[in-house]
C-alpha cells in the first residue's frame, strides 16, 4: 500500500502491537535510520541544522512568555493569565486527541488485513462490517477504483471551488470581495468503502445498496480574505457512516439506470482538524458545537428524509417523487414508562444518595422528540405519544435515550435501539426494552400504521382516534405530502425589481418554509413538505408566496383538504391560480394524502408471562357448549377494598404576604418588587396560578381540585416563584403532609385556606365524585365473524377519559380496573362507555345518565348493562359520592341538609376543603333536588343581587361576598356600568364603606368579591348592611345612578350558615326581600 512520506515502513507482524501505534512515539534513532543517504553526508550541515532547531525551539518557548509579560505590563491579575493558560491547555488537548485519532485511523486503514488477523479477539464494533456481518461483502476492487480516480477528483474539486464557490462567496458580501482559496488538496488518502451490502427482495424497479464508508483523509483546504489578513482552513478530517445508494428507475435503454439517489440512513460521525483562525473552533465547548453545526448542515442535505438525486437521463419523469418519495409507513410510539433506573442525584458531597429526574429523547433519523421531566423518580410514568415517518425499511432505527435532568449537564441513564423492520413485521410491539449503557428498562408500545390511498376507512380511523387519549398531541388520521414545484409570472417588487420568492405552507398552527430563489418571478423550488393531519375533512392548507423579507406577499392560496378526499388516489397534481397576485400568477404543486390505518389482523402479541396483554385465551373464555367447568356468571362486581375510598382535595390559593423583592432596575440601583405565582404538586399532578404583577402581598383567589387517596407519605408541595423573562426566581417552598389534611379536614396554617372563599372559577368546581369499577364483559361480537377481538374500554365524563388495558383475543375480557371522575352537574352529565377492539373499531357502547344514580339506592348501580349494539354486556359498578366539606370555617355548619335551602349547582365552593363521601342517600337527594331547577323565583322589576353574609368567629370578622346581579333595569339607550356599594349602618363614614369593581355595559354583572369588617358578634347583630347597586351616569360626571338597593337586618339574618341568596332590589324608599 502507498504510504505518505515520513511515516516510516509498516512494522512487521512480530513487532505489530494489538492497537495502532502512534508513529510519532518512535525514538529519534528510528527516524534516523529511515534516511538511506544519511550515512554519506558530512557532519557539518547536520550540526548546523541541529543548532538551528535548538534556537527555533528556544524562540518558541520565549514567544509563549510574551502574553505573560504583557499581562503584567498592563496590570492584569494572575487570574487572567491562569485562564488563558487553561484555555490553551484545553485547546492543545483537543488538538492532540484529533491528531492522534487521525493517525490511528490512517494506520488502521493502511494495515487493515494485518490488524484484522491479529485482533479477531476484539469486540465486533471494532471490526469492519464485512467481518461482523456475513451478508456484507468486502469491496477491495471498488476501493482500487476510487484510489485511481481520487487525484482527478481532487482536480475537479479545486476547479469547482475556484471557479464556482469562490465567486459566489465574493458576491454574497462586500466584506468578502478578496476571498480566495489558496490551497485545495484532497490528499493521498482516498475514501474507503469498508463493506457493501445489497438488499435483495426489494422492489424490482430499483437496486438498493448500503455502503459502509470511512474517510480518514489528509485533506487540506486553505482560504484567505486578503483585505483583513485572515487565514483559515481544514487539515485532516474523519467521516464515518452508512451511505445508502438507490439506483432507480431501471429502464430498457442505456444507461439502464434512470437516476441515482444517495443519503445517509443515520447521522454520520464527523471530526475536523482546523487550521488558521478556525483553530479557535478546537477550544473545548466550541469543538463539539462546530462539529454539531456542520453535521446539522449535512443532515439537512444528505440524511433522511433528505437525499441527493442525480438524474442520469434527460426528461426523467416524477423527479419530485424520486427526490422526496412517500414514507413507507408511520410508527406511533407510545413512551409509557421506565423502571429500575439508576440514581444519579447525590447530596452532601455524595454521602446521601437521592434519585433521578428522568426524561427521554426519542429519535428516528432527523425526527427528535423530548418527553417531560419526572422529578425524583426511578420508575417514571410518561404516557406520551409521538408519530414518526419511516422512509427506509430496513435500515432506520428507533432510538430512545434516557437522561437525568440536572442544572449543569444532564447525566446519561441508558439507551435502546430497535430496527423499524421488527415493528413492521409485528404490527404492534408492546414490551419492556433493556437500556444499554445503564440499568433499567423502558416500556414502549410501537404501532405500525399503513398508508391507504383511498378514503374508505377514514371514518373508522377518526372514530378510533376519538377514543384514544394522546399527549402532547392528538393522534393523526392522515398525512399530507406537498411537492412544491414552481411558480409563474409572480408580481414584481417596487421599481420593477425581480423578487426573491419563498413559500410558507401552513396547516393550523404548523408552518413550514421553502428556500428562497433569488432574482426571479418564475422560481423553481422542487421541494417536499410533510404534515400530520388530525381531521382532513375540516382542515385547510394555507399557502403564502412571499419575498424573502417576509414583508411583501406575492400571492396566496387556500385549499380545503376535503377536496383531496374525492380526488383519484387522494392526489392533486396541477396548476393553482394565486389570489392577491398578478392576473397570470399561478403555482404548480402536487398534493398527496394518505390515510393512517392500523391493521390488527396480523398483530403478534407478546407471550411473556406477566407482560402487558399476555392473556391466556382459554383461561378467560371457556369453550362454548361446555357447562361442566364453566364458572357461574357473577351478578355483581367484586371490587377491592380500596374502591370508592378516594377523597377530593380542594385547594384554595388565597394570598401571600411579605414576599422577597427580586426585580432590580438600572443595574440593581433601583429595587423593584416581584411578579409572584404559585406552583402546586400533588398525586402526580401539577397546577399553576396566574401571575400577579408587581406585588409583594399578592392575592390569587384560585381553587384547584385533585383526587387523592389515603396512601401514607403523600405531600402537597407549594412553591412560589417570581416570573421573569429568562429564568423565574425562587421565592419559597413549603410541604404539607396529606395525612394531616385528611385527618383534620381543614388546612389553615400556611395556605390560609378558607372554604367559604369565592372565586371566578367557582362554577368549575365539582359537586360530586363518580367512582366506576369496570370488571368484565361477555358475548362481544367476533372479528370478521370468526376471530375473537382484542377489546379495551374507554370511560368518558365530559372532557375526562380513562382507557383500560387491552385484553388479547377474547370475547369475554376481564379488566378489573377502576376510574374516578369529578362531577360538576350530576343532573345533566352522563357516563359514556365504549368497548373497542384493536384494529376493529367499535364493539358496543353505553350511555349512563348520572341522574339514574341520584334515585338509586345508596347512589350506586352494580349490575350487568347491555351494550347499544345489541350484542355484548358489561359488568360494572358506578357509585356517586357528594362532596361535603369536613370543616367549612363556620362554627354551626352541620352535615344535615334537610333544613338547608342552598343549591348545589350555585355554590359547590361552599363545601371546599378536603371533602368526604357520604352515603346518606335520602338526605343527599333532598339537597340535590334544586340543582339546575328551572322553578326559581322570578326577579323583581329592578333585578336581583346575590350575596353571602356570615360571621367568621375564629377571626372575629363579618364577611360578605358579592357574587353578582341579574336582570338589572336599563334606563337609557345603552346598558349600565354597574358596581355594588356596601355600607354598615348606622355608620355612614368611609371606614365601613366597601365597593366592588365596575363592570362595563351589562345587565348581569359577575363580581365574586369578598369584603370584611372587624367587629364583635354582638355589635354585628346591631347593624344593618346597606347594599346599593349603582352605575356611572357619564364619563365626565361624578353623579351615580341608583339602580336598586336592599337592606339586610343582621339581627334577623342567620350568620352561622353563610348561604348564598338572591335578594330583590328595591327603590330607595323600600326594603328589599329575598
From TrEMBL:
<keyword id="KW-0446">Lipid-binding</keyword>
<keyword id="KW-0472">Membrane</keyword>
<keyword id="KW-0479">Metal-binding</keyword>
<keyword id="KW-0445">Lipid transport</keyword>
<keyword id="KW-0813">Transport</keyword>
<keyword id="KW-0106">Calcium</keyword>
<feature type="transmembrane region" description="Helical">
    <location>
        <begin position="62"/>
        <end position="91"/>
    </location>
</feature>
<feature type="region of interest" description="Disordered">
    <location>
        <begin position="894"/>
        <end position="919"/>
    </location>
</feature>
<feature type="region of interest" description="Disordered">
    <location>
        <begin position="614"/>
        <end position="641"/>
    </location>
</feature>
<dbReference type="InterPro" id="IPR039010">
    <property type="entry name" value="Synaptotagmin_SMP"/>
</dbReference>
<feature type="domain" description="C2">
    <location>
        <begin position="312"/>
        <end position="433"/>
    </location>
</feature>
<dbReference type="GO" id="GO:0006869">
    <property type="term" value="P:lipid transport"/>
</dbReference>
<dbReference type="GO" id="GO:0061817">
    <property type="term" value="P:endoplasmic reticulum-plasma membrane tethering"/>
</dbReference>
<feature type="compositionally biased region" description="Gly residues">
    <location>
        <begin position="37"/>
        <end position="46"/>
    </location>
</feature>
<dbReference type="InterPro" id="IPR037733">
    <property type="entry name" value="Ext_Synaptotagmin_C2A"/>
</dbReference>
<dbReference type="GO" id="GO:0005886">
    <property type="term" value="C:plasma membrane"/>
</dbReference>
<dbReference type="GO" id="GO:0031210">
    <property type="term" value="F:phosphatidylcholine binding"/>
</dbReference>
<dbReference type="InterPro" id="IPR031468">
    <property type="entry name" value="SMP_LBD"/>
</dbReference>
<dbReference type="InterPro" id="IPR051634">
    <property type="entry name" value="Extended_Synaptotagmin"/>
</dbReference>
<dbReference type="GO" id="GO:0005789">
    <property type="term" value="C:endoplasmic reticulum membrane"/>
</dbReference>
<feature type="domain" description="C2">
    <location>
        <begin position="755"/>
        <end position="869"/>
    </location>
</feature>
<feature type="domain" description="C2">
    <location>
        <begin position="627"/>
        <end position="751"/>
    </location>
</feature>
<dbReference type="GO" id="GO:0035091">
    <property type="term" value="F:phosphatidylinositol binding"/>
</dbReference>
<keyword id="KW-0677">Repeat</keyword>
<feature type="domain" description="C2">
    <location>
        <begin position="941"/>
        <end position="1063"/>
    </location>
</feature>
<keyword id="KW-1133">Transmembrane helix</keyword>
<dbReference type="InterPro" id="IPR037749">
    <property type="entry name" value="Ext_Synaptotagmin_C2B"/>
</dbReference>
<dbReference type="InterPro" id="IPR035892">
    <property type="entry name" value="C2_domain_sf"/>
</dbReference>
<dbReference type="GO" id="GO:0005509">
    <property type="term" value="F:calcium ion binding"/>
</dbReference>
<keyword id="KW-0812">Transmembrane</keyword>
<dbReference type="GO" id="GO:0008429">
    <property type="term" value="F:phosphatidylethanolamine binding"/>
</dbReference>
<feature type="transmembrane region" description="Helical">
    <location>
        <begin position="245"/>
        <end position="265"/>
    </location>
</feature>
<protein>
    <submittedName>
        <fullName>Extended synaptotagmin 1</fullName>
    </submittedName>
</protein>
<dbReference type="InterPro" id="IPR037752">
    <property type="entry name" value="C2C_KIAA1228"/>
</dbReference>
<comment type="similarity">
    <text>Belongs to the extended synaptotagmin family.</text>
</comment>
<feature type="compositionally biased region" description="Low complexity">
    <location>
        <begin position="895"/>
        <end position="905"/>
    </location>
</feature>
<keyword id="KW-0256">Endoplasmic reticulum</keyword>
<dbReference type="Pfam" id="PF00168">
    <property type="entry name" value="C2"/>
</dbReference>
<dbReference type="InterPro" id="IPR000008">
    <property type="entry name" value="C2_dom"/>
</dbReference>
<dbReference type="GO" id="GO:0005544">
    <property type="term" value="F:calcium-dependent phospholipid binding"/>
</dbReference>
<keyword id="KW-1003">Cell membrane</keyword>
<dbReference type="Pfam" id="PF17047">
    <property type="entry name" value="SMP_LBD"/>
</dbReference>
Amino acid at each position: 500500500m502507498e504510504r505518505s512520506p515520513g511515516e516510516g515502513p509498516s512494522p512487521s507482524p512480530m513487532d505489530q502491537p494489538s492497537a495502532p501505534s502512534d508513529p510519532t512515539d518512535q525514538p529519534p534513532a528510528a527516524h534516523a535510520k529511515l534516511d538511506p543517504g544519511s550515512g554519506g553526508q558530512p557532519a557539518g550541515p547536520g550540526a548546523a541544522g541541529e543548532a538551528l532547531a535548538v534556537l527555533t525551539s528556544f524562540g518558541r518557548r520565549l514567544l509563549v512568555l510574551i502574553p505573560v509579560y504583557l499581562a503584567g505590563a498592563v496590570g492584569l491579575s494572575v487570574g487572567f493569565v491562569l485562564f488563558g493558560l487553561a484555555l490553551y491547555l484545553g485547546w492543545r488537548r483537543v488538538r492532540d486527541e484529533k491528531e492522534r485519532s487521525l493517525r490511528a485511523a490512517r494506520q488502521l486503514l493502511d494495515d487493515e488485513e494485518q490488524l484484522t488477523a491479529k485482533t479477531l479477539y476484539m469486540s465486533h464494533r471494532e471490526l469492519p462490517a464485512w467481518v461482523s456481518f456475513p451478508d456484507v461483502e468486502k469491496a477491495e476492487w471498488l476501493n482500487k477504483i476510487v484510489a485511481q480516480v481520487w487525484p482527478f477528483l481532487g482536480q475537479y474539486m479545486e476547479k469547482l471551488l475556484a471557479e464556482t464557490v469562490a465567486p459566489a462567496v465574493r458576491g454574497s458580501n462586500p466584506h468578502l470581495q478578496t476571498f480566495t482559496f489558496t490551497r485545495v488538496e484532497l490528499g493521498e488518502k482516498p475514501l474507503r468503502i469498508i463493506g457493501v451490502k445489497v438488499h435483495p427482495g426489494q422492489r424490482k424497479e430499483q437496486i438498493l445498496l448500503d455502503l459502509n464508508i470511512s474517510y480518514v483523509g489528509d485533506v487540506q483546504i486553505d482560504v484567505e480574505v486578503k483585505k483583513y489578513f485572515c487565514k483559515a482552513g481544514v487539515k485532516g478530517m474523519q467521516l464515518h457512516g452508512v451511505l445508502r445508494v438507490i439506483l432507480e428507475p431501471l429502464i430498457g435503454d442505456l444507461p439502464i439506470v434512470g437516476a441515482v439517489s444517495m443519503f445517509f440512513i443515520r447521522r454520520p460521525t464527523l471530526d475536523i482538524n482546523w487550521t488558521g483562525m478556525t483553530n479557535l473552533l478546537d477550544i473545548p465547548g466550541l469543538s463539539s458545537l462546530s462539529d454539531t453545526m456542520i453535521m446539522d448542515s449535512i443532515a439537512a442535505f444528505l440524511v433522511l428524509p433528505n437525499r441527493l438525486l442525480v438524474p442520469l437521463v434527460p426528461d426523467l419523469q416524477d423527479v419530485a417523487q424520486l427526490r422526496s418519495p412517500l414514507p413507507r409507513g408511520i410508527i406511533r410510539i407510545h413512551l409509557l414508562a421506565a423502571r429500575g433506573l439508576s440514581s444519579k442525584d447525590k447530596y452532601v458531597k455524595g454521602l446521601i444518595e437521592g434519585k433521578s429526574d428522568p426524561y427521554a429523547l426519542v429519535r428516528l433519523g432527523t425526527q427528535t422528540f423530548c418527553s417531560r421531566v419526572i422529578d425524583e423518580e426511578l420508575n417514571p410514568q410518561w404516557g406520551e405519544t409521538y408519530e414518526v415517518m419511516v422512509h427506509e425499511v430496513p435500515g432506520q432505527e428507533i432510538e430512545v435515550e434516557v437522561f437525568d435532568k440536572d442544572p449543569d449537564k444532564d447525566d446519561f441513564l441508558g439507551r435502546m435501539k430497535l430496527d423499524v423492520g421488527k415493528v413492521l413485521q409485528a404490527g404492534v410491539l408492546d414490551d419492556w426494552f433493556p437500556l444499554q449503557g445503564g440499568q433499567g428498562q423502558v416500556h414502549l408500545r410501537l404501532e405500525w400504521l399503513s398508508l391507504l390511498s383511498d378514503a374508505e376507512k377514514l371514518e373508522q380511523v377518526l372514530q378510533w382516534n376519538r377514543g384514544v387519549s394522546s399527549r402532547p398531541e392528538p393522534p393523526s388520521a392522515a398525512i399530507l405530502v406537498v411537492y412544491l414545484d414552481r411558480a409563474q409570472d409572480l408580481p414584481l417588487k417596487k421599481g420593477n425589481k425581480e423578487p426573491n420568492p419563498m413559500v410558507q405552507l401552513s396547516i393550523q398552527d404548523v408552518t413550514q418554509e421553502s428556500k428562497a430563489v433569488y432574482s426571479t418571478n418564475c422560481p423553481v423550488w422542487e421541494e417536499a413538505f410533510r404534515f400530520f393531519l388530525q381531521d382532513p375533512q375540516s382542515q385547510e392548507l394555507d399557502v403564502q408566496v412571499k419575498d424573502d423579507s417576509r414583508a411583501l406577499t406575492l400571492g396566496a392560496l387556500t385549499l380545503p383538504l376535503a377536496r383531496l378526499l374525492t380526488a383519484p388516489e387522494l392526489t392533486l397534481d396541477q396548476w393553482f391560480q394565486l389570489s392577491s397576485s398578478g392576473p397570470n400568477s399561478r403555482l404548480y404543486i402536487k398534493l398527496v394524502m394518505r390515510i393512517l390505518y392500523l391493521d390488527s389482523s396480523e398483530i403478534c402479541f407478546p407471550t411473556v408471562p406477566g407482560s402487558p396483554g399476555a392473556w391466556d385465551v382459554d383461561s378467560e373464555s371457556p369453550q362454548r357448549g361446555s357447562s361442566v367447568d364453566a364458572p357461574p356468571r357473577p351478578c355483581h362486581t367484586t371490587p377491592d377494598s380500596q374502591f370508592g375510598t378516594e377523597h377530593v382535595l380542594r385547594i384554595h390559593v388565597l394570598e401571600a404576604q411579605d414576599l422577597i423583592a427580586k426585580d432590580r432596575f438600572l443595574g440593581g440601583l433601583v429595587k423593584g418588587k416581584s411578579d409572584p405565582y404559585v406552583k402546586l404538586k400533588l398525586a402526580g399532578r401539577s397546577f399553576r396560578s396566574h401571575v400577579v404583577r408587581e406585588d409583594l402581598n399578592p392575592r390569587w383567589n384560585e381553587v384547584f381540585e385533585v383526587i387523592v387517596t389515603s396512601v401514607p407519605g403523600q405531600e402537597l408541595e407549594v412553591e412560589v416563584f417570581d416570573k421573569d423573562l429568562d429564568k423565574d426566581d425562587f421565592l419559597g417552598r413549603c410541604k404539607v403532609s396529606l395525612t394531616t389534611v385528611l385527618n383534620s379536614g381543614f388546612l389553615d396554617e400556611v395556605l390560609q385556606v378558607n372554604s367559604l372563599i369565592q372565586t371566578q372559577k367557582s362554577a368549575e368546581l365539582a359537586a360530586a365524585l363518580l367512582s366506576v369499577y369496570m370488571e368484565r364483559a361477555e358475548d362481544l361480537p367476533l372479528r370478521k365473524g370468526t376471530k375473537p377481538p382484542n377489546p379495551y374500554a374507554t370511560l368518558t365524563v365530559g372532557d375526562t377519559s380513562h382507557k383500560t388495558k387491552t385484553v388479547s383475543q377474547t370475547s369475554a375480557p376481564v379488566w378489573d380496573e377502576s376510574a374516578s371522575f369529578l362531577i360538576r352537574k350530576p343532573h345533566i352529565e352522563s357516563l359514556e362507555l365504549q368497548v373497542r377492539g384493536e384494529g376493529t373499531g367499535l364493539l358496543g357502547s353505553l350511555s349512563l345518565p348520572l341522574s339514574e344514580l341520584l334515585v338509586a339506592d345508596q347512589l350506586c348501580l352494580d349490575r350487568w348493562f347491555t351494550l347499544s349494539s345489541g350484542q355484548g354486556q358489561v359488568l360494572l359498578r358506578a357509585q356517586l359520592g357528594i362532596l361535603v366539606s369536613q370543616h367549612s370555617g363556620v362554627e354551626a355548619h352541620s352535615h344535615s341538609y334537610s333544613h338547608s335551602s342552598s343549591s348545589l349547582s350555585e355554590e359547590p365552593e361552599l363545601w371546599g376543603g378536603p371533602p368526604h363521601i357520604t352515603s346518606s342517600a335520602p338526605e343527599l337527594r333532598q339537597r340535590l333536588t334544586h340543582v339546575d331547577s328551572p322553578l326559581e323565583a322570578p326577579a323583581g322589576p329592578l333585578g336581583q343581587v346575590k350575596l353571602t353574609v356570615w360571621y367568621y368567629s375564629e377571626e372575629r370578622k363579618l364577611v360578605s361576598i358579592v357574587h353578582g346581579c341579574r336582570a338589572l333595569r336599563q334606563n337609557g339607550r345603552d346598558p349600565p356600568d354597574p358596581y355594588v356599594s356596601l355600607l354598615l349602618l348606622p355608620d355612614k363614614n368611609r371606614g365601613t364603606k366597601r365597593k366592588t369593581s365596575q363592570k362595563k355595559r351589562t345587565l348581569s354583572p359577575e363580581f365574586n368579591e369578598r369584603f370584611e369588617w372587624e367587629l364583635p358578634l354582638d355589635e354585628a347583630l346591631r347593624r344593618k348592611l346597606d347594599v346599593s347597586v349603582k352605575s356611572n351616569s357619564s364619563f365626565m360626571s361624578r353623579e351615580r345612578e341608583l339602580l336598586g338597593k336592599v337592606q339586610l337586618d343582621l339581627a334577623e339574618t342567620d350568620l352561622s350558615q353563610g348561604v348564598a341568596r338572591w335578594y330583590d332590589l328595591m327603590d330607595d324608599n323600600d326594603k328589599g326581600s329575598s
